[in-house]
Amino acid sequence: MVRMLIGIGKWTAIIVLVFLVSLLAIRAWDSQQGDPLAPWQTFVPDELSPTQLDGTDWAGYLAAEQRAFAEVKAEVTDKLEPAQRVVVNRYFDGAPMYPGHFAQDWNRSYVLEPAGPPVGAVVLIHGLSDSPYSLHDIAQLYRAHGFVAIGLRVPGHGTVPAGLTTADWPQWLAATRLAMREARRRVGPNLPIHIVGYSNGGALAVKYTLDACEHSELPMPTRLVLLSPMIGVTSFARFAGLAGLPALLPRFAKAAWLDLLPEYNPFKYNSFPVNAARQSYLLTDAIRSQMLRMARDRQLGRLPPILSFQSVVDDTVSASAVMHTLYANVPANGSEVVLFDVNRNQRFDTLLKPSALTAVNRMLPPGPQAYRSTVIANAAVNDDHTVTRTTEAGQKTTTTAPLSILYPDTIFSLSHIALPFPPTDPLYGTAPDMSENFGIRLGTQAPRGERGTLILNFDAALRISSNPFYPYVRDRIEALLPAAAAQPTAKLAEPVH
Q1: 391 — phi, psi (to 5°)?
Q2: Rounded-to-integer distance, Cα 442 and Cα 455, Å
Q3: Percentage, residues of the chain above pLDDT 90
Q4: In this structure, are residues 80 and 201 in contact, taking their beta carbons and an 8 Å threshold?
């Protein structure tokens, strides 16, 4: 019997090994297809390590950031081949979306100063493969209410996609600590500090705050505002590192990438490396473990109130993890989650998957909870009018109130990438404000034609990139802030390049 079990185990191991080798071989073969890697996918600018980030200040970080951008200019932009000098390449200085043309390059860290003495500070942390542009509208809202707004460029971002092939989450977290030190330095020991985190930035905000609960030397934020927070990711990200194993051999370097796409977006990478997916899993796994341990040991009493905005359908992060990992463990401290339901308009009712139609019910647990929950949804099936359905903390009954925003009949749901952008956003908006021009207007793209003709990724073109309910999001954030005094338009404090 023992010999039989050993034999079965041996053959099982052999079958698994053959299967894995076959997958790696297929992955290596597939990586050889298409064009060779471009300079922005091979050159990695120098960034500060976690130790260096912990040992420097904001001015030191800006200086290192400037060196990284100068390296990209010298090693990528100035060395492009003639075939790469095209108007749809953000790294070509003759392209309309080349960030060096803009009055403000929102790929870089920034500080928005209020016109008068600050009443607080806010640190804003963007998402994975993104840039500080994604939260600049919310930063301006905070500035208008007297806050110093610190927009952090997370290491590996804003420069070239290759920067994400070596960046890791401890480095991102060290940069978050640096930004929080700068926020405290600017407003002194007693004024409030908020953290606004989008996607991966939401994960960094939560991880930093959990660390601050355990380490009193870290400045504690007084409130978190999270948009599409990355509290959990798909199971694929857990094993993404395996997809990059063939890249250990130089011939198969392209295997280090999950997506290799043209770079026409001035403020976000289109290409996506395996390492970025791997780091997202490692960060969310660290959050889950720490949250569960601290909840078990009753160490979450210092956790500040959290206001989160989340679409019930999200193809980038696990929407359910926001509820089951984060909100299931928050104390009764005034936290709230706002969920955006799918559009139950008759145009889509037969096309939506059953899992999408039942997502909101699966996410919200029965019975009284320690947090307030609000669902933005159609007033009724086949009704474009919308309502808020709110359940107060500790209560079972739901209060319904009308919302003055219609669910657009051309949009079947929100998306992970839509939440921080107003419909008037000049880059991502469906009705862009024409006062700014970043060389391309991605939110108005509605292509029809044959596959393989455009440089656009059709999945990306179908995905809504701005939030029709953004006025509600903005109002809810503004309600957290002191009344705004009449202030003249403030200048961008730093950096100015």
Answers
A1: -120, 120
A2: 12
A3: 77
A4: no
What span, in angstroms and rounded, lies between the C-alpha atoms of 434 and 421?
A: 15
Best CATH choice for the domain 30-423 from the list 3.30.1490.480, 3.50.50.60, 3.30.70.1060, 3.40.50.1820: 3.40.50.1820
What pTM was computed for the model? Answer: 0.90
Q: Where are the domains of the chain?
A: 30-423
Give the CA distances from residue 195 to residues 178, 204, 281, 282, in Å, rounded to whole numbers and listed in that order. Answer: 13, 10, 22, 21
Helices (H), 338-467: 354-357, 359-363, 458-462
pLDDT digits (tens, 9 = 90+) for 345-371: 877 778 889 999 999 999 999 989 999
CA distances, 248 to each of 28, 178, 242, 253 (Å) = 11, 33, 11, 7
At 281-339, the pLDDT tens digits run: 999 999 999 999 999 999 999 999 999 999 999 999 999 999 999 999 999 999 999 99
Verify cis geometry, omega within 30 degrees of 0, for the bond prior to 495: yes
Q: How far apart are CA 225 and CA 206, in angstroms?
A: 10
